[in-house]
Amino acid sequence: MKVLIQTDRLSKYYGKGGEIKAVDNLDLEVYEGETFGLLGPNGAGKTTAIRLLNCIIKPTSGTARVMGHDILDDDLEVKRVTGLLTESPGLYEKLSAYEFLEFMGALYDVPEDILPRRIEELLKLFGLQKRRDYLLEGYSRGMKQRILIASALIHDPPILFLDEPTSTLDPRAALMVKNLVRKLAEDAGKTIFICSHILPVVEELCDRIGIINKGRLVALGTVDSIKKQTRKDTLEDAFIAITGGVRKKELLSWREQRGTSA
Amino acid sequence: MSLTLLFKDELKGFYKSKIMIFLWVGLPVVVLLFHLITLDTGPIPFSALIAILLASLGGTLASVMITVSIVNERKGHVYDLFFVRPVRRMDILIAKYFAVYVCVTIAALLALTIGFAYDYGTGGAPEMFLEGTLESFVISLSMLAVYTAVGVLIGVASPSVLVGVILIIYGGNQLSAVPMLLPVVFGTSSYFPLAFILGVVTTIILLTLAIIVFNRKKL
Ligand SMILES: Nc1ncnc2c1ncn2[C@@H]1O[C@H](COP(=O)(O)OP(=O)(O)OP(=O)(O)O)[C@@H](O)[C@H]1O
Ligand SMILES: [Mg+2]
How high is the ipTM of this complex? Predict the structure, then answer.
């Protein structure tokens, strides 16, 4: 299998003397055509990893290659082969959906004879044709999310990064986005890299997952293999076991304490 | 390539949010009102007065406009749209700079035209007010350039809109007076070209600083 993303001891430290290890010596490979999920609790370093891989920030040490382009040297090339939905992205609210896609496409130099057709295709795929000429300021959250994913696909990149694509959506909108992602992976053959802490989404969509905690990769493999490694029945239990989260018993311990002190 | 795209997009944004109308109608109207209120300006032609007024009024407008717009877009994560795409960060700032500068300059030209028309209508001889006014207008333009650059720098560096506006009121005016005052301080005879050059140089320094800060900002 062809490796599309390969990180080499990728690290990003913040704070005085680099005490906050947002991403710490990450070694990871993502293969062509797979949907890869990066899981981790809040603050684990998922967003930082995605920002590093998309050349928005520079690593403290280590590097990565995205379709053969080094993130340190070829940032413009990397950006041309990736599409990214960021965690809480802004929008040009004063543009219509069509104008927005047109603008984003122009930024990638999508040829003018291809762009209109591609915009139509994306609007159709994302069910936004009827609202194409409405200003984005009137869009609902779910619709904004769809237009943002569409804009990440406007230059037809082989790799799509999605940072928490469903965490702010209601169940229906989340389902729609989930189906879309599946369609992109299966029909369009995209390689997809999803970050999330919503386990069912990841479990359903991803061929392989990596679990990251405090910047370090602590598990890697298919969902089944990770369950097996941790001898748990659900991904949730495995996740808690691996990331060292609190158990139910610990969560309830305050009751006992109160009970005894009263 | 992306620079012209971003520039057009900025102008479109100003147009759609009706900022252009307020500037292009508003500035001449305010200037005219100002004149009506202070009727007795002595021998100074109205157009010359306008040129001076424009530098401070238009300048403050320009720097507030650009600061607010940059801080808002930073807070609203709008720049993420560009950072994930093959766009140079400096192009974002330069496009915004020129969009605001062009808008405000057009407003200034409109106001000045009205001033000329007024002076002409009230019987002034054109050559009398043309000469001095044009010079002071060029200096006003170079002050506007500095003001706008101050706005970019503060917009990039300031943590909030309010802090940005406060900084402009504290520092913007003083800084943009540089091209006006320095030649006077040094008592040079060639006041006009020196003021102009100083304006351009200050602008370039400020914009370069802004670009450096913007490139280094952790996002
Ligand atoms: N610009 C920054 N400056 C300082 N610290 C940062 C910065 N960006 C991230 N961090 C820190 O790096 C760590 C990882 O953050 P990151 O946003 O990557 O986590 P995450 O896994 O995406 O979390 P979440 O699930 O909440 O989105 C956190 O401790 C965060 O505080
Ligand atoms: Mg995150």
Answer: 0.80
For residue B85, list chain A residues with Cβ-Cβ distance below 8 A: 79, 104, 107-108
Q: Which residues of A touch B217 (CB under 8 A)?
A: none
Give yes or no for a contact between A197 and A236, defined as CB atoms under 8 angstroms apart: no
By the CB < 8 Å criterion, does B131 face chain A? no
pLDDT digit string (tens) for B167-202? 888 877 777 677 667 666 766 666 677 778 888 898
> Exposed, middle or buried by CB within 10 Å (0-12, 13-18, 19+), for B124?
middle
Asked if A52 and A71 touch (Cβ cutoff 8 Å), the reply is yes
More confident residue, B116 or A47: A47
Q: C-alpha angle B133/B136/B137, rounded to 5°?
A: 80
Q: Which helix (H) or strand (E) covers residue A4, if one does? A: strand A3-14
Q: Do A89 and B2 touch (CB under 8 A)?
A: no
Strand order through the sheet with A69-70: A20-31, A3-14, A61-66, A69-70
In our burial notation (b when 16+ CB lie closer than 10 A, e otherwise), range A37-48 reads bbbbbeebbbbb
Nearest to A86 among B16, B77, B86 (CB): B77
CA atoms within 13 A on the CB side of A108: 25
Tell me if A239 sits within 8 A of A196, measured CB to CB: no
Q: Report how far ligand 2's centroid is from the alpha carbon of A43 (Å).
A: 7
Question: Rounded to two decimals, what is the model's pTM?
Answer: 0.84
CB A10 within 8 A of CB A52: yes
